[in-house]
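Service request form, structural biology core

Requester: graduate student, group of Dr. S.
Request type: structure prediction, single chain
Budget code: on file
Notes: please return the result as structure tokens.

Sequence provided:
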Amino acid sequence: MKQAAAPLQDDRNDAVDADVAIVGYGPTGAVLANLLGQRGWRVALLDREPGLLDLPRAVHFDGEVMRIFDAAGLAGDIAPLARPSSGMQYVNTAGQLMLERKPAASSGDHGWANNYLFHQPDLENALRRGVQRFARVKPSLRHEVQGVEQDDQVATLTVRALESDALHQLRARWVVGCDGARSRLRDAIGGGQLDLGLHQSWLVVDVLLQRDVDLPLATVQFCDPARPVTFVNVTGRRRRWEFMLMPGDDPLAMTQPEVVWRLIARWITPADATLVRGAVYTFHALIAERWRDRRLLIAGDSAHQTPPFLGQGMCAGIRDASNLAWKLDLVLRGAEDTLLDTYQSERQPHVHAFVSTAVRLGNIIQTTNPTVAAERDRQFASGGPQEIVNLSPQLGPGVHGGDMPAGSIPGQPRLADGRLLDTALGSGFAVLAADNAIYAALPTADRLKFDRLGTRWLTDPVLTDWLVALGTPLVVLRPDRYVFGVAAGPDQLAHLASQLPTCQEHPQTSMENWYPKAHNHSLPPKGAYASLEAARREAQP
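Core staff response, request fulfilled:
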């Protein structure tokens, strides 16, 4: 496993037990712990369970999430545990294709496959092994938060050790609740939840095949009004079916093995597979109205719940962790804590786009009125199958320039030396340009504003076409690789410098910032980016 650096050793506030306390050790909490551990912070991880839940739950993540795993130094460990998706199909009772997400190539927009399938216990084991790299990240299992208080300096958690029933207090500068749909931290923050109007129970059935069976390679949504069904080809010999509960179904009876085998009999028999579990889940579409109260924040299912029809529930929580980690890092290094208000302002509209889309897809498969289903089928038949593509919405207002492509995450190219872009950029801000002309013209004071944030300045022949596609000669990326802003010349770049957060010097600034240092790459003819050259000339003083 790749060992990530933990450059910062800052124990100035010995009155606290941790810089950040994370409540909940699921995927969101584990990713946040890894990202903060890389940055050297003291992290206390609290979870009431005795260990990993050895049950499959989430089964999908996308290419952007794999970039986050890579940023945490864990992509090499996680990639062998997942497989590129074979696609997703929405079919009606006649077997006609209505909607389709294409199979994922091994390398997509983000430098990784666009979509992956995985077994959640495998993923969580990898994330927890990643946490073990950091001596300053300390998990405490079988510990339950009973209460929380806060003041201007610290948040104090009252924690019960479930093995001994003993109570103790844990003091942290910041607390992040990743404690799920019934979050105590969300209750402590207060506020209601925005309800997007989907509350439906489904039976989830997981099996392990014992022999080869002719089953679909793709995920299939069987849009049957008599009983909607989802089939998922997970990894290896793991397969999943999900059955919508219908009026009159007894949820407890539906989980009994004889009922489960009767439901999946059209595909497999007990001779073909071992039943791993059958459990009823109620899918919700909810978004918390408040994600922060002073020193308390929430992330993952604590902040939002999404139905599974887009496969984005876990992904949304991991995006929360990525957004929050670099902002907590800057605040812990002296940036104004109002920076943390941009966490909700950016992420809440972003996750709303995913949840609302999942609701719309859910309305397609969950149609149980035969007349409505027939009209649905007719409309899709008249227009032909529609393609589902991965969403990439713009962030809400926050730490970016506002106008696209600011607030969006661009694709990740592979550089001339064969490395993925993220590998070259490190953990701080980054300025990418076709050449270093703008950098050379930037006043020293403005360069220092970037340098204090650990900004990596990068030029590479591959970036020429990449920047042409973005419509700019220069782009500033945030640590989470979303666009902070774009510039056509040194004046605009200086303006972006004035908008940067300020804090103590970033550990990455000890390195020479301009890359490549010893390479004199010949750039393509200027005609290849003539419009960018014109923009640059117009910006010259």
